[in-house]
Records
---
Amino acid sequence: MADNKKKSLQVKTGDRVMVIAGKDKGKIGNVKKTMPSESKVIVEGANMVTKAQKANPMAGTQGGLVKVEAPLNNSNVMIVCPACEKVTKVKHEMKDGKKVRVCKKCGEQLDV
């Protein structure tokens, strides 16, 4: 069943996150890309897979095996608060008429 609703994720591109499940559990990295429709995120240095790449003489790329980051489910990552340096859940608050993300542990604003 295709779900055409736009989903929202707790993490955004550029957030520092920790992988909390899977083969890379405990790794910390920045979010490179988010895919809300699929509920997936790509984290730098996490979930590395080997991919066969075909040579393209026109673009000047060599063929061979390359390591790339594969998407992770967003439920397998948690935000690391920049202020308290702890893994935390996200709380939403209204500040100056805007909805912002806040660390549940220290109360520091996550959106800059």
Note: The two ends are 37 Å apart (CA to CA).
---
Amino acid sequence: MFSRIEGRLRERREQSVLVDVGGLSYEVMVPGCVMDKLARLELGAPVSLDVFSYMQIDGNRGTLSFVGFTNAIEREFFEALLSVSSIGPKTAVRAFARPMAEIARYIDDGDRNALRKLPGIGDQKAKDIIAKLQGKVARFGLIQGEPARKEPQPDFVAEAIEVLLQLQYKRAEAERMVKEALSGNGSASSAEDLLTEIYRRQRAS
């Protein structure tokens, strides 16, 4: 069974993605919370997913199916959901629509109403999940939220920082000085404007 797939993101579908690996495209189902992360990638971008693979039986035919995650801990949480007898892979994929830590807190708190709001989880399945997993998912609730992404900066900001580095300022100090200059002169539109503001502040201190 496969445990990881690496390639390029070829296509996004409603509940799955196509990953191109050496000219072969693999369809990988992804939970909603994972799709939210993959939505940030451009088509053609490199992608690496931990996968849970299983055989889907349809009559006399078996099909190897994949479910993708951004890390191994998400996959382990998915496998924990599968340990609930009434939860199959497709139901677990649908239910995993919220961040892992959030669902783990629902389970640990015994919050049946919150669990029932997850796609595919009715009252009985919510009861089953709590009965099976309550008190066993604390570590999945410890994951930190993703760091806030930095807003893109104009080129002249990086240029001003580079000038300060050449003048022997440390990077942290240069970034702080530029940040303060930006707050003091919101109309700055060039590195020269920022450096002038920094010089003015130093003269005034």
Note: The chain has a mean pLDDT of 88.
---
Amino acid sequence: MVVKFKILVAGNKSVGKTTLVRRYCTGVFQTDTLSTIGVDFMVKEVKIGNEDVSFSIWDFAGEKKFRQLLPAYCSGASGALLLFDLTNAESMEELDAWVEVIDRNAPDISKVLVGTKADLVANRQVPKRLAEEIMSKYKMIGFWETSSKTGENVEDVFQALGAEILKRSLRRCPYCDHLVPKELYFCQFCGKKLINNSV
């Protein structure tokens, strides 16, 4: 049995969202990724603990004009990665707006803060202390500094998010007895409506 989780990836333009997702899903660092237009989507199946998990990862364009798309995709989401660029202080300042949209439309999902481009140490603009303050302010489960180029912490971020989701977001369908994310209104295995969205 594979448990399916919907993951949102949000943050400003050029912070490295698409590069991170593709590094995680393919194991390859791509330097020629184009800016996402609207929403991009990838799937990755992994093992977390004893569970087989399938992540459907929704990568949102970072331009403000595309932020209006995010609320519609929050439905059924189990987790979110909020990204900023460690070498760009402005990308950290915009995080409030992204978190606000997610918290308003999916208030109970697990959130992780991710600082990208950790390999560019000499160009760093965002101190770890500030990132940890943001993580605490929005009750995120953790903060990781990643590098899509070297692969540093890329797997760890998704593993940690998946483990947290498994711990707090599963319930058993009363019709087919499969474990499903509590955010869903319909069982992903038998298709039946989960009464009052709770069991």
Note: The chain has a mean pLDDT of 88.
---
Amino acid sequence: MKQLLFPRRCPVCDGIVTPQGEKICFGCLKKLKPVAAPWCMICGKGLAAEGTFCEDCRKGRMHAYRRARALYDYPSIAPSVYRFKYGGRREYKDFFGEEMARYLGEFIRMTGAEGLIPVPLHPKRMRKRGYNQAAELAKVLGRKLGLPVYENILFRVKNTAPLKEQNYKERQNNLKKAFLVRKNDVKLKTIILIDDIYTTGTTADEAAMALMEGGVENVYVVALAGSMEG
């Protein structure tokens, strides 16, 4: 009955899903481009040619987290991510979270993570948006993989300017001291940080540093979408 009154929207075309009862139009599924091997063994960025590391990681750029992986190549999913974040399409979480579990579940299990922590929104953005898209993905992912989701450990205390048009250095300055760990009562040692987009890794690094200052020893990163090398 709910599907008849409020038909599900396709996360790719945003039309009513066909056939009914599915989470994505069958014709739209092929438009999504997963980040295919080879990918960087540190940041997870898709590589333009065979290799182990992307150019940045080869040159010795250090990350606070141990490893990162992303499901989709960002350009193939950018309009969908925008609607998911800003257009109220909260329902996309079901398809995307399940696909993250399907394709990145093995990587997540390999880390030995004790739980998932979504990258938090600043309270002002949370009030405006109504939900945190990273937390929505984490809840579906956690349910599929049997991992708890912790939303009361990492907090965003700095309302940063939009990062989209900023270069790496500008992002670093913008995100400095943006996150704070207020408690780690469960004494987590290994966690997966969940986000919707991974580009330069600055958000992940700042969040990981805050978590490690709070007692977490190993931080891995999983994102819905990421960038390719080149």
Note: Strands lie at 68-73, 115-118, 154-156, 179-181, 190-198, 218-226.
